[in-house]
């Protein structure tokens, strides 16, 4: 059974850094297309960063240069290093795995597995 578990969220101040981790079980993260999404109440889930089957990272414009997505093979986990955090980065962050269609890395319905989320709150 495939399971994803996010961790690392918290409350920080603007300009701070935070690293999220998504521990996977039941499958090897290096064989998946994976991504991080985020969601604020009342809004749709937004793709933030993705890693395709070849290890190519992709980012939404709002986080380019500030966030880095990577795989930690030793722990079979997907990480998201977040720097220069802004209040607008405040959201519940979700890990997603097993995307099906090339080119739709930031489409929620393209992923087969999801974690429960971890909250990130950035204050001024």
Structure description:
The chain is an all-beta fold and 124 residues long. It has no helices and eleven strands. It has strands spanning 3-7, 10-13, 18-25, 34-39, 46-51, 57-59, 67-72, 77-82, 91-99, 111-114, 118-123. The strands form two sheets. Strands 2, 4, 5, 6, 9, 10 and 11 form a seven-stranded mixed beta sheet that branches. Strands 1-3-8-7 form a four-stranded antiparallel beta sheet, with no helix packed on it. A hairpin with a 6-residue loop joins strand 4 (34-39) and strand 5 (46-51). The radius of gyration is 13 Å and the shape is globular.
Question: Brief description of this entry?
Answer:
Helices cover 0% and strands 51% of the residues.
Which sheet architecture does the biggest sheet show?
Answer: 7 strands, mixed
Q: Which structural class do the helices and strands define?
A: mainly beta
- Low-confidence sequence ranges: none
Mean pLDDT rating: 95
Beta-strand content estimate: over 45%
Distance between the amino and carboxyl termini: 41 Å
How many helices? 0
The share of residues in helices is under 10%
C-alpha geometry = globular
């Amino acid at each position: 059974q495939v399971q994803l578990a996010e961790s690392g969220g918290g409350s920080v101040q603007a300009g701070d850094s935070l690293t999220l981790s998504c521990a996977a079980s039941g499958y090897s993260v290096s064989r998946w297309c994976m991504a991080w999404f985020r969601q604020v109440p009342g809004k749709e889930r937004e793709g933030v960063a993705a890693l395709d089957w070849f290890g190519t990272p992709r980012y939404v414009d709002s986080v380019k240069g500030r966030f880095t997505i990577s795989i930690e093979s030793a722990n079979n986990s997907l990480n998201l290093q977040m720097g220069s955090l802004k209040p607008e980065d405040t959201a519940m962050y979700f890990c997603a795995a097993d995307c099906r269609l090339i080119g739709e890395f930031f489409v929620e319905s393209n992923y087969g597995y999801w974690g429960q989320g971890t909250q990130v709150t950035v204050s001024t």
